[in-house]
## 1
Amino acid sequence: MGHPDTRPSPVRSDPGVWFRVHRRAQRPRLRLVCFPHAGGTTHLFHGWPALLPADVELLAVRYPGRQNRLLEPFAPDLPTLAEEIHTALEAYLDRPLALFGHSMGSAVAYEVARRLDDRGLTPTRLLVSGRVAPHRAAATELHTRDDEALIANVRRLGGPGTEAYDDPDLRELILPALRADYRLIETYRPRQPKPLRAPITAYAGESDPYCPPDGVRAWSELTGPGGFEHRWFPGGHFYLDPSEADLLADITARLA
């Protein structure tokens, strides 16, 4: 049972709708806001709190159109999605924020960081993963292809939970969100994205076909001199699972 993916999503400011707090700290030193990949959910980050310092509170973004937001319309475009998330973050601005995004989530996190930056609320760091810089992304149109082509691409990337597409009932529930997310990222093509005042750290898998080294290093053009660092991990697009402990150790060191 599908639902339309072209209606604009109204701006909502309820943080309980937008964020899952994986671990609530009584007096957090910092909040790490995490943005999933296309078709992804907050589950990607469920194991992270155990690997982060106790004074870092983790918020995982709930995109509309899936899980507990299944009946909500998808965002019409990526900047609108970022604006809605930025608005919902108002409740969490009493502590410093760092942003982490994987794949499509990197682009969403960048757009949220840009909005915070414009208000003088610059995040302590933008951490991007599995995605080249927005102005270096190659044009693709997978969201216009048939279901089999879209699913085949996800399987090729080795994403978590791909076995769900083998179940006709589950497939019918989750495929619309996947296609909507691909539409968001594939139609997001900023030619001259604005540099941030925040430092940027880029992560990628060494064998990720979507992350050529020059495209990953191009994130350096979106921060100030000396504000860019990058690190490669063994594996492909979803290197995060096998390298979770090492990745979180690196993130923790950069948030110190």
## 2
Amino acid sequence: MGTIQESELIINERGAIYHLDLLPEELATTIITVGDPDRVSKVSSRFDRIEVQRQHREFVTHTGTIGGKRLSVVSTGIGPDNIDIVLNELDALVNIDFKTRTIRHDHTALDIIRIGTSGSLQAAIPVDSWVASTHGLGIDNLLNFYRADENEEERQLLQGFITQTQLGARISQPYISSAAPSLLKHFVTDFHHGITVTCPGFYGPQGRVLRLGLSHPDLIDRLTDFSFGQHRITNFEMETAAIYGLGKLLGHHCLSLSAIVANRVNRNFSKDAGNTIDKLINTTIDILKGL
């Protein structure tokens, strides 16, 4: 591939990538992503030292060290469209030479760990528990804009999902990607494991009814009832499959961790969601310090 044109790779006046406003040296190779910009400071408050603080629109980044390990925490905002921006720009920072606008010969693989909130789709996964996603299954359509292939397990899971739920034709062509085993194996104790479905919205796409009728009023039941061998859908949210899919294509190691703040089967919501998220942040950082 030749030189990447200015219209494709946008670099601002200080030489930083456009949306994140980051220079390559301002990013660590272990990255925590959060949706909420205000959550960045909650994570970085655990750092021993903060060396970089940047903000552009909803994208806030703090880079620092804790226990000798360099970490970045980046806010993505909500939804797979924002993940498309963030994942591509994080990759560009480490794998594209901004001076020559060419792809670097030596590939750098990032560890990217999402800490977010989610709704449970199983009665046995209560509010205030945590999920580590073994797979991200997207009904948001983002990965269909990229050339992507699933492995054999992923193909079988995807076919089983389409066959059982019959959601493919009207909504989108679903896609699926797996978590990085190198990260997932460290997040077992206190975590439920299962498939996380990624939706393109919060209300209708997640089966919520306010004033509008739904094309699939039984969406929750279809997702909850899905099974393939020992695989079940544990929860849904709006970023995981996009992170897993793009991360896999770009050669990075990704893991999504969710604090369950709602149970859509039991129809209840956490009374102390902030505390559940804070505990997940602390546990995640403690694990990452040792890696």
## 3
Amino acid sequence: MDTSPLHTHRWSRRLRGALEAPEHWDFLDAPAGPLADAAEALPLGRYRDALHGVWLGHPLHPALVQLPLGCWTSAALLDFIPGGRRSAGTLVAAGLLAAGPAAVTGWVDWARLDPPRRRTGLVHALANTTGLLLYGGSLLARCRGRRARGRLLGLAGLTAVSAGAALGGHLAYRLAAGPDRAAAVPRLAPTDWVGLGALEDFPSGQAVRRSAGELAVVVVRDGERCDVLAERCAHLSGPLSEGTLVDGCLRCPWHGSEFRLRDGQVVHGPATAPQPVLETRVLSGHLEVRLPGAG
């Protein structure tokens, strides 16, 4: 086996290419659109935010997928340990049960992604669905006493969900489908007071884009009060200055996340991280902002 650095580099490049390929498969847009509409049409009500992970402060889906993956990996190990086959079957069944909630949270998050990320997410879901079917066959074979067949189907299922996990990691970390897009704001926001303009330059009840040093911000004035938030949405960097005001909140125009103006807390997802808010003051009729607590 060739383990030279050049061979390893080629193998790594091919693997990265395989993970990157689905985001360019625009033929997936045809099935993705109706599927996303179906996920959005689910009568989840206020539970949709819970499934996004708003209450947790980060997406719920990555946490839930650990349960079925853990069960199935442990089942594969027990299949090769004397006396462990019965426990392996129990873990296969437990993994199938745990996969349901994980899948629901995944589809809810996926429906609010943009097309390139949806494509990768759809292939990720197809790989996991294949794994689920294989594990269902594995459990059925085990229940019928066909242990060798059940073990073989289980290994095939583990291969499929491992491929799905690799795509899920690529989607989350390379394509940044879940991280807080506003995490860098504390490093970009000015630590000294910076002027944004005369108070009269900000029409009451409108979202106005301004720059505070290197940071783009959105200003919303209500009489003498001004709320200033980072302009790019924490979900997928949507332009909040183009959003709408709803009951003291600012709604992102891209995916509908709503942030409370006074403190940036998430009122409705899919965003799970709060939107950074800057400290404000008005001097001689001019609005100034800085990083909170910088004084």
